[in-house]
Write a structure and sequence with these properties.
Helix 9 packs across helix 10. The longest helix is centred in the middle third of the chain and has 32 residues. The protein is of the alpha/beta class. 63% of the residues lie in helices and 8% in strands. The protein has a 5-stranded mixed β-sheet, sandwiched between helices. It folds into 2 domains: 86 residues, abc type-2 transporter like domain (abc type-2 transporter like fold, 3-Layer(aba) Sandwich), CATH 3.40.1710.10; 197 residues, no CATH class. The N and C termini lie far apart (71 Å).
């Protein structure tokens, strides 16, 4: 029995991926998620507008962190700023009245502001925009769309490619008169189409069954989804290229999936995370898709408002998919037969 125990320990030591999954990943999750798993928003970036903006900025409760004072702007411009996602809260300070506009698409931030003002400044008029009833489904359904795209693009795609390699059909594709990129596009096109169908179904069900508002352009959501899916398909190809079995592919896919779920703002608000943890969120593609989907569906944002996250997704897609294409291409290039240096000597001298 002791020999079997020693054997298993040696085999475990050789499997670096399993060691990382069993030791490094739990520690990383404990540290990162321990700081990230918080719904407590203590400070909210706030823009103060109106003729009495300077005076009102000095009297706001501590939960409202004044980042901009623009006395020349009015309530309509403050609404446009919230719709564009520039700030989550805007204070309109008139000559005789102070009104607080809150972005309802940022659910926990809006709830924290409403609760903080109710206790610190109960006479202030608070108006919640875009999600007046602070409905959880209105902010969760747009994020769940991204979660489905991550699952299909990363997990399902990586498993499909790994099965091709295990069955030996990937090597058979290498001898076909096709270019490497043609083979890859043909392999991932079905996953892209399935993801598009799932996206449509989830959005329609969310709007019809859960009464999630869809105030923006469907084409903008489709554009953001396509760019985001480009990134997730690239991650799936990368995972499959370094995996030798379906089990390894699932392990690596989960290692890329869990941080995105926890740190993207899908569940826990980014404003509640420490700066160091929040910086990790800004390199995760799901962070930008959640921002895009909520902006388009809930706030009705236009192209200019989501241009930055769209551009960042495009850059991430080019980098990740390019790396995946370069690494996977090696599996599609048939190995050239090695030349035998003794063949010429065995053939003997050539006589006239």
């Amino acid at each position: 029995m002791w020999a079997m125990v020693v054997k298993e320990f040696r085999q475990m030591r050789r499997d670096h991926r399993a060691l990382a999954l069993m030791i490094a990943l739990p520690l990383l999750m404990l540290v990162v998620f321990g700081y990230a798993a918080s719904f407590d928003v203590t400070q909210v970036p706030t823009r103060v507008v109106g003729p009495a903006a300077e005076q009102a900025a000095r009297q706001l409760p501590g939960i409202l962190e004044v980042v901009e004072v623009r006395a020349e702007q009015d309530a309509d411009e403050a609404r446009d700023a919230l719709r564009a996602g520039e700030v989550p809260v805007a204070v309109v300070a008139g000559a005789s009245q102070v009104r607080v506009l809150v972005d309802g698409s940022q659910l926990f931030t809006a709830r924290a502001v409403a609760a903080g003002l109710a206790s610190a400044a109960p006479t202030v008029d608070v108006e919640v925009l875009f999600n007046e009833s602070l409905d959880t489904a209105a902010v969760m359904i747009p994020g769940i769309v991204g979660l489905i795209l991550v699952f299909i693009g990363t997990v399902i795609t990586s498993l499909g490619m790994v099965r091709e390699r295990a069955a030996g059909t990937l090597e058979q594709l290498a001898v076909l008169p096709l270019r490497s990129r043609d083979v890859l596009v043909g392999k991932i096109a079905p996953y892209f189409l399935v993801a598009a169908v799932d996206l449509t179904v989830v959005v329609v069900v969310g709007v019809v069954l859960f009464e999630v508002p869809f105030n923006g352009s469907p084409w903008l959501l489709a554009l953001g989804s396509a760019l985001f899916l480009l990134v997730t398909l690239g991650v799936g190809l990368l995972v499959s290229s370094v995996s030798e079995s379906s089990g390894q592919a699932i392990q690596l896919a989960l290692m890329t999936l869990l941080p995105q779920v926890m740190l993207s703002g899908l569940i826990f608000p980014l404003e509640a995370m420490p700066v160091a943890i929040r910086s990790i969120a800004y390199v995760l593609p799901l962070t930008y898709f959640v921002e895009i989907s909520r902006a388009v569906m809930v706030r009705g944002a236009d192209l200019a408002a989501i241009a930055e996250p769209l551009l960042l997704l495009l850059v991430l897609g080019i980098v990740v998919f390019g790396a995946a294409l370069a690494r996977t291409r090696r599996d599609l290039v048939p190995a050239r037969p090695r030349k035998d240096p003794t063949a010429r000597q065995q053939a003997g001298p050539v006589t006239a």
